[in-house]
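Homework-ish question, so no full write-ups if that breaks the rules, but can someone show me the predicted structure for this set?
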Amino acid sequence: MSYLLGKRGVGFKLLAVLLAATAVASACGSDSSSDDAAPAATTAAPAEETATTEAPETTEAPATTATPTTTTEAPPVGPSQGGSASLAIEAEATGLRPWEDTCSSPCYNMMNAVYDKLTEQYADGSYGPMLAKSWESNDDYTVFTVQLQEGVSFTDGTALTAQHIVDMFAVQQTGAASAGVIASSNLIGVEATGDLEVTYTLSATNGPFMAVLSRAPMGMVFNAALVPAGDDDAMAAAANAPTGIGTGPFMVTNRDVDNKTEMERNPNYWMSDNFGTQLPYLDSVSFHPIPDEGTRLDSLSSGTVTAMQTLRQATIRDARTVAEDGSLWMFEFQGNNAGGGMFNVLVPPYDDVRVRRGLIMATRQDSIIAALGGEGISEPATQLYAEDSPWYSEEAAEAYASYDFDGAMALLEDYINDPDRSDGKAAGEKIDTVLSCPPDPTLIAAMEVTQQFWNETGLVNTELTAFDQATHINMALGMGNEFRGEHEVHCWRWGSESDPGGENSGSAPWETSPFNFSNWHDPEHYALLEEARTTDDVAARAALYGQASIMVNEQVPIYFSGGTATAIATEAGLGGFDSWILPDGEIGIGHPSAEGRWGQAYWTE
Amino acid sequence: MLAARLVRLVATLLAVSFLTFFLVNTLPGDPINALIPPDAQQDQEFVAQLREDYGLNDPFLVRYGSWLGDAINGDLGRSVITDQLVTDEIKHRIPVTAELAVVSIGLALLLAIPLGVTAGYRQGTKIDQSISALAQFLLSIPSFIVGLILIYFLSIRLRWLPATGWTRLTESVTGNIKTVIMPAVSLALTEIAVYTRIVRSDMINTLKETYVLSAKSKGLKDRFILFRHALRPSSLTLTTIVGLNIAGLIGGTVVIEQLFALPGLGKRLLDAIFQRDFIMVQGVTVFMACVYVVINTCVDLFYMIIDPRIRRKS
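A: Not a homework solution, just the prediction itself:
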């Protein structure tokens, strides 16, 4: 017995040792938070300064695209120089090669720190200079001549020249991410016509071509000498963005895939802020993939990281709650990006517009938004463009198949009782549908609500399926069945802040290509998009996109739930996401899709 | 005897690698889909060249032979998505997964052995019932729930430990301890329950053996009897389970790796499956199979160390 009592004592001692080890470890470790930011202050936060760089000559600025919405007041004091920041991202980047790696919001955060683009978007959505100082085109928009900034060098000291852009093109032509963009933008040649002058030649007119150079695959400038053709090891190394590959504000110092990517400031970065302070403000920045939404917010709340990004409304709602005590700052953005889905119009019964319209008219958008956790956050969407976009059309919004239960019943009954109905069933039989989303909890909730609405008609059997993201995308691509797609009704995200004319899509590809996931193609509709590329007159283009949107909403190959709110949440004091500037001193677009420009993020004084 | 075991080990590895190769190759879909973007797949000449380059036109056995030849030389291929060498990926991630497995099982053994011995020795008493109830309770809590609770208290409330991430031992020992504690404890609690029950059950049977009664009649102390004479023969089942657990944890900690954002091997395999990265799936799966087979062979050998009767029979 005495032995047993003694043993129990040992057990408690073991627990005590474990807890003590925890306490010691927590006390001894270094803390990477950046409260000790260096005090070298500049003046107040960059405001609306006059342009100091030569303005683009021939590309007229479209009016406004999406307006960033920020729930926290702009920092009352200016940026300090120094400090570090750590961002929790929702997924690891496959690689940091803009021409090769399929990228989304998390990896763009990293790439934006390593690479500079040729052009960037102003706050109003129009395009301005970055590494491209200025540009002009011929009258039919088939030749664009770009002047590069002077005094720019890669992070290994190599000076940027026009030849670098030409060398990039050879790599981009076989790049998994860039090859398709080259084709859809009509680009056929890149030539150095001066030390710092590059000429892009297109096979057909493309007025908003410079928009293509604001996006990663074609716009991010890299040193192609580091990825010689056929060198597998160099290609693999490039995925970790070695020193010298970019001209951006930071250099990768440690890439521990799926754990953290650490970067230090590029001491020779070429850009300064409007007050002459050399950028970047931060000494270092690190990126930490944390896939679970809850623990990502926990990591911010606990001080494990100093910032997080999210594209989920439910997480924004939770982060807002945490931010109520002032410990967090919220930088939210709700632009053109919207949730929704598509019908595969090659598959009966979705080949019949009565079914497509009927199903959407039977569904309440506000209920779907609530299921997605977006109540009070997300606005209902009716087209590829948000209401504050220059491409938004009031007429298209009216043409959207809004909730109308009686109307839906009429359309579905008409189809069901049609003896020649396309699904081959007998007249009067119910319609069978398969609705699929990736297995995210909020998406599954939205699917279940949709199923209830459709089944409520008594005319539809709805089966729900959920596949991982990669399978979900592959099903829509349909690589195994000549790109017809293996999907029926498929969740999808639509819309982007990019000019819809650059790649002629507005994010929903309508040409006859593998990327036309809904398979809906109307030559008359596509002709409108092509015509919109032949001019840079914003009003004329908006009218053409408006007509195109009306046709889409009448035919309903795709549908919408609500705008996708996104956010970067930070420890109070870390800001700069709304106020970053282009080289001409004008304010940039902010942080669409929770993509920050870390080169101009800062701790307030 | 050892030679026969080694032959069996090699034969098992060959069978596992063949089956893995076969299963990966019979998965639906063309591997070429994972290699190039959809628009490039319309270039038939390019696709044909790629097929030739990757040996996809060769018969299955030729491809397996080629892969096996490379694998024997330590070349498991290169990821079709990231271009990284599979062996580099394994080398990069196995320290994380192995440390997590060893620490969690170490913690579990540290607590489970005394608890199991006590419960077995005090069979039927309130102490035994309390330990059994505790084991039942621990067994019923999923490890990710434990993880969430730990994050809430130790990270958010007390701010003692980082909620997520991993610091490698080579970077900082204290940093490493801070990042391994919560995931290891999350995994260990379930194991504590399992090990406690096993040790208790085996201890009860051992304590009925005549040599234990004989030792008692000689007046030897309880502690000496339990740990010198009873624990070793009561550890055979535990050894088997621990061996299986270590091997299982090499690839089976995906949920905890996901929750705590750890760069482990299980997470890499899961990502590779989602990305249709067939070369990575193949390489990592075969590696895990190797670990499984080797550890179980080690467990067989370990039996002989802890129980002389098995050694003599062998």
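Now go work out the reasoning yourself. Hint: The domain at 93-313 of chain B is CATH 1.10.3720.10 (MetI-like fold).
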